[in-house]
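Hi support team,

I'm filing this because I wasn't sure whether my run with zinc ion finished correctly. The job status page said complete, but I'd like someone to confirm that the output block is well-formed before I use it downstream. Pasting the exact inputs I used:
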Amino acid sequence: MTRPSPGNGTVFEPATAEDIRIVSAQLGRPARGVAGIAARCACGKPTVVATQPRLDDGTPFPTLYYLTHPAATAAMSVLEAEGVMTEFNERLKADAALREAYAAAHEAYLADRATLGEVAEIDGISAGGMPDRVKCLHALAGHALAAGVGVNPIGDLALERSRWRTSVCECSDYDAAGDETAGAVTVDDTAPSTPEGER
Ligand SMILES: [Zn+2]
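And here is everything the job wrote out:
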């Protein structure tokens, strides 16, 4: 898996034209504001895309690390449907060390994003509910995959709990995506909830 080096004037691994094509197929719409690929599937296809903090049309975009892999997003949606966010919020309330680590994850996220430029409208705003709530496991898992284990404790917990594994490729045939949606493991159901949840 490829990951940036936070705080070192990071340049994200550039996305190739093929990466952009696959990310667009994963999302079911054209990829926007791609700054690079922040994490990859075992097979090498993108799992997390790094997105510019301001899109080409001027829209501020706080979600630097955007989980695009259909099997991974579906797995996070399953956890959310099972009530895991309520459980994690309760753990945060009860565990001061976890709260501290989660707040540090928020700062790390903002520092990574700042390497792509400062955007006043989203100053101090990260993603997924950070720094003190759990609101979107997709965003938190995306951060955990990009940064590596030990940076985002809630993202790490979500990935541990999930049936999806970074070591196992579950990519569908993106070339066939236009003709065959039947094999797309509930992706169509889960995708619309993601952007809203990540704000
Ligand atoms: Zn794969």
